[in-house]
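Regression test attached.
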Amino acid sequence: MTDIIVPEGLWDADVTPEGIVSNWFFADGATVSKDSVVAEIMVEKSTFDIETPTGGVLKHSVPKDGVIRPGTVIGTVNAG
Amino acid sequence: MTSNRILPMSRAISEAIAQEMRTDPSVFVMGEDIGAYGGIFGATSGLLDEFGDGRVRDTPISETGFIGAGVGAAMSGMRPIVELMFVDFFGVCMDSIYNLAAKNTYFSGGNYKVPMVIMTATGGGYSDAGQHSQTLHGTFAHLPGMKVVAPSNAYDAKGLMATAIRDDSPVMFMFHKGLQGLAWMASPDGAATVVPEDTYAIPFGQAKVVREGKDATIVTLSMMVHHALDAAEALAKEGIEAEVIDLRTIVPLDRDTILKSVAKTGRLIVVDEDYKSFGLTGEIIATVAEHDPTCLKSAPRRLAVPDVPIPYSRVMEQFVLPNAKTIADSVRASVKGA
């Protein structure tokens, strides 16, 4: 199982510590392929795409509109 | 290729533009904050990174100038997509839109085409006041020379944008802000859909029956499709089966699908987020009346914004906009009044 993690350094977390998951592009339980853009996060007015490092069955750990910080695991992918 | 990818409408639009830009070097995008910012409603996100600032051009706040430049570019062989940030801002640039873009094909005796897309944000519901909240569907549909598109969901938006870019006429592509799937504005569940990754085009002038029913026909478009579907869901629990038609394009208008549905149901309710008088709702009712008024079992009804500018006050704005409850009430009255 692989974690999908909000990367460090995308934005200045000292100024704005938190963001949200603004969109999931695949449903919970969907099969995704490696390097797909699976989610979008929003910090203030900026958005960032989040890719999955591996393919498999996606599970959302943070729902749409849920709060995230750098390093947050927003979902997992099970290669099973 | 099948896909299980769910895109919000904003991403579906930007993907359609990107795919057309990859295959046709004459396609480019201009507008306010459409570059680094990706469009304030996300319709051009990611384009600057892929195509650079030669083909994705931020403009000054000068709509008359840059829409006029778009007309000139289109007449010179390009296929510009020009974003008018809010449709409400048409006031300063209407000469470029309806005296240049819409008429130059006619004025040149057909010697020049104006293959241009004016992409613009419509709609209210989020307390942004009367100069940021109109849809103005009827304003642009009324003036000859432009095609007018207003999608209700991501799948349609992608296919209709591809058609808009390839069309040789000027096209007003009117997307509702509340359907774009932006983090800061609530969006109905049905607006984000599975969107194929391959390119595809949806022909203009083909309305879609998004829910079948035998008791009444609700004709609508854009955001109001979702409210109409919610109303139909509520009515079904009472045994009233409403058919819901999503027009998808206003010009050209798929009158056949409307007539066929009303011939079946005998009742017509038209719902539009635009102003009520002299507009789309009246046009749809006239279409049925001109064709065969005897197919109606009860008087046609229309729900639209009463003829006042959209209020800033949340309670007042919510009062003037049609919603699932007022649509259901209208259908109920139509069915029971017969």
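Expected vs. actual: identical. Chain A has a mean pLDDT of 94.
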